[in-house]
Amino acid sequence: MANSNAFRRRTLVKSAVLGAGSTVLLARHGRAAADKPQYGGKLRVAYQLAPGALDPVVGRSGGDAYYWRQFCDQLVDADPALKPRAETSLAESWDVSDPKSVTLKLRKGVLFHDGTPFDAAAVKFNIERLLDPATKATPRAAFTAVESVEAVDEHLVRFRLKRPWGSVLSTLADRGGAMNSPTAVKALGADYAFKPVSTGPFKVAEFVSGSHVRFVRNEKYWGRDGDGNPLPYLDEIVMNIMADPTVQVSALKAGDTDLVYLPVRDVGGFLDNPKYNVETFQGGGVVFTLSFNQAKPPMDNQNLRLAVAHAINPEAIVKAVHFGRAIVAKGGMWPTGSWAYDPTVARPSYNVAKAKALLAAGGKPGGFEMDALMWPSEVNTPTAEIVRAQLGAIGIKLNLKVAEVTVATEKFYYGQEAPLFLTSWSRYPEPDWNASLIYRSDGYYNAGKVKNAALDALIDEGAATVDLEKRKVIYRKVDEIVLGEALMVPEIYGITYAAAAKHVMGLDQVFGWDAKMYLHRMWLKKV
Amino acid sequence: MWRYARRRLLQLVPSLLLITMMVFALMHAIPGDPARMMVGAGEALDEAQLAVVRREYNLDRPVVIQYGLWLGRVLSGDLGRSAVSQRRVSEELRLRAGVTFQLGLFAWLIGALIAIPAGIVSAVFRGRLPDTVATLVAVGAVALPGFWVGIMLILLFGVRLGWLPTQGYVALAENPLDSLRHMLLPAIALGITSAALVMRQMRSALLEVLEQDYIRTARAKGLARWPVVLGHAVRNAFLPVITVMGLEIGRIFAGSVVVETLFGIPGMGRLMVQAVFQHDFAIVQGSVLVIATAVLAVNFATDMLYAVIDPRIRYDT
Hints:
The complex is a heterodimer.
Chain A: H1 2-28, E1 42-47, H2 65-71, E2 91-95, E3 101-106, H3 120-131, E4 146-153, E5 156-161, H4 168-172, H5 182-188, E6 202-208, E7 212-217, E8 236-241, H6 245-254, E9 259-261, H7 264-271, E10 276-292, H8 302-311, H9 314-322, E11 326-328, H10 352-361, E12 369-374, H11 380-392, E13 397-402, H12 405-413, E14 420-425, H13 431-439, H14 453-464, H15 468-484, E15 488-501, E16 504-505, E17 523-524
Parallel strand pairs in A: 1-8, 12-13, 12-14
Antiparallel strand pairs in A: 2-3, 3-5, 4-5, 6-7, 7-8, 9-15, 10-14, 10-15, 11-15, 16-17
Chain B: H1 2-29, H2 34-39, H3 47-56, H4 63-75, H5 89-124, H6 129-143, H7 146-160, H8 176-210, H9 213-220, H10 225-263, H11 268-278, H12 281-309
Helix pairs in contact in B: 1-12, 5-6, 5-8, 5-10, 5-12, 6-8, 7-8, 7-10, 8-10, 10-11, 10-12, 11-12
C-alpha cells in the first residue's frame, strides 16, 4: 500500500512536470486558445550595446539593429531564413524579373510617425539620401547597383539598375530598406540621427544617452496579426543598456527586467527554471573564424593555410569555451538557417595527420612561427589560447597579438600586419554581402587583395542572379573554393539564447533573420 | 590669501591646456587611420564616404592644426558633435556630467562617513580589538576591485534580498527617494575603497597628534578622553586627511567608469570609455575637459580649505 502510494505520488509529480513542459511547448510553438494576445503593458528589455545613432542608415554598429528594428518596417521584410515575406513588408509586391530594373508596388495607407504619407516619393528620397556620400550611410556599398530611382506613380517605385542585382530583396530587408520620413529628415538635419521618424509599430519616445531608449505604441500602425487584430500589442517598450551580461541575468532574476540575451554559461540554469521561458536561434553568427591574409607569408602558401585549418579541433573549443552550446561549422560563412547554407561542402576539418602531411607539402615539415591578431573577450581569449596549443601540437608556434576589436580589425584588413586573424563575424545569411566584402579580390575584408579570377567571376554571377535555386548552386561553388583553398575558414557557429519572464508572450517570434530581437508581436500576460 | 587664490586659479589654465593637449596627442597616437577607426569594425564605408568623414572632422589636416581648430571652437563655446550619435557634445555632457557628479559626491560622502569615525576609533583604541577589526576591513576594502564589490552587492541586495534596484538611474529632481535607492549600491561600491584609504590616513594622522605635548597637557589638566580627542586632536589631524579626501575625488572619477557600467548608470565615465573605443574624438576631448576641470577645481578648493582649518596657514607669502 505504502509502495503504491509512493508510486502514485511519483506518477503525479511526473505528469505535473510533463504538464509544465507542454505549456512551454505551447508557448514556443503556437498559441493555445486561452493565450489570446492581450493589449497594454510595458516590456523591459536589457541589451548590452548602446545604440550609436538611431537613424537606421547612419548608425554604424551592428547593435543598432536592436533599436531601429522596433520602430522601422522594411521595404521588403523577410522571415527568419531571410526569405522575402510580403505580408509584413512596406511593398505589397515586387518585380525583379528585369535585369535592368526593380519595381516595388507600395502598400497604401501607411503613415510615417509624423503623420506624413509613405509613398513612392518617400522611397525615392530615402534611396537617394543613402546613395549621397555626404550622408555617410552605412549600407551605401550594398546599393551601388542602383543607377536612379523613379516614382512611377504614388504607390509604384522603380529602381533603374547599372547591373543586375541578385541580392536586392535581402538588401531591402536590412538597414537600407528601413524608411525615414523625408519631412523629418529635412527639418531636423544632424539631429535626425537620434530623433528618427519611421513607419514601424513603435515610435521613439525618449533616447536617454547611455541609459535607455523608450518606445511607445504607434496608434496608427498599419500592421495586423493573423486574426486581423491591430499591432502592436504592447503600450511601451523600454530598452535598458546593461553592458555586463552577468548584470543582465541578475536584473532578470531580480525582476528588474523582463527579457535578456542569455550568456551560454547561464543557459542551463534557466532551461530548468519554471519561472522563465528560453528561446534559441541556431547559427546566430560565426563565433569563431580563421581569417587568412593570402599575401602575407607564411599564409601565402595554400598548403600551410590548410595545415592550420586541419590542426584546429573546434569540438574541443565548443566544449571548453561554449559549454557545448555552439555548433561546429560544417559550411561556409553563411551559417545554419540561411537558404545558402550547405553542410555537404568539403571543408578542412580536424585531422592532425593530414595537417602534418600538408606542413611537409608546404615545405615546412618541422612547423613554423607566425603572428596572429586577435581581440580579447570572454570567448575569444580562451579560444585563442586553445588554438595556440592545438597548433603547437603540430609545431606551429603562434604569437598572439592582442588589440581592441576596432584596432585589430583595422590592423589586419587594412594595415596587413599579420597573416592570420582569429575573429568572429555577425550573422549575414545573404551570401552576396560576405562574398563581395570578404572574398572578392577588391573586397574590404579581403586582407591580401589576392586576385582569384574564378572566385570573382562566381561572386559577380551570384550578385547578378535573382533565382534562389540558381544562386544556391553558385554559392556552393564559392564555398568550395573558399574552404578548399582556406581563404576564410569558419570554425564555430553560435547559438543565440533569449530568456524572458513567464508572463512575456510571443517569445517564439522574437528572433529575426539576423538573430536580433523583434518585439513587434510580443505581449504581456496579465497575472 | 586672495592673491594666492588668484595665482592658483591662473595656474589652472596651463594645466588644463596641457591635459587636453596630451589627450589629443594620445588619441591620435592610436595606430591606424582615424577615419576608418571612427567608422567602426563591422561595417565598411567606401572611399567617397571616408573623404567626407575626413573633411568633416578635419582629419585630413596636421594634428597640430586639428588641435588648434578644436581649441578655437571650444573657446567660442562649441565642443562639436559626436561622430557616432551625432549629438552635440555639450548636450551629451550636460546630461551625463550631473549624473557622475551626483554619484561621485554620494560615494565620497559615504566614504567620509565610514572613514572618519572608523579612523578615530582605530587611533584611540590603537592595537586593540576595534583597531584590528577596522584595519583588517580597510585592507580588504583596498584590495577588492570595485567591479567585484559591485557584483556582490547586486547579488546580495538586489537578487537575494530584493531590497534595492540593481540597475539604472533616477534623477534626484524627479524622485529624490528613488534616486537615492538607485544610487546607494553603486555609491557604496565606489566609495568603499576610498573609505579605506581615508580611514588609514585619519588613523595615522590622529595617532601623531595624540602623542603631542598639548594633548598630554590637556589630559593632565583633567579633561576627559573624548572631549580632548574630538575637540583638540581631530581638527589638527584633519589637514592630511583633507588632502587625501581631495585626491580621492580624482580616483572616484576613475572608478566611476567601471561602476557606471556595472549598474547601468548613464554617467560620464561610461560615455568616455565608449567614446575611446569608438574613436569618437569630440566626446573624449569634451569629457576630459570637464573631468580635468572638476579635479583641478577640487584640488584648488582643498588648498583653500587648509586655510580655513589651520589658522596658521594664510598663504600670504
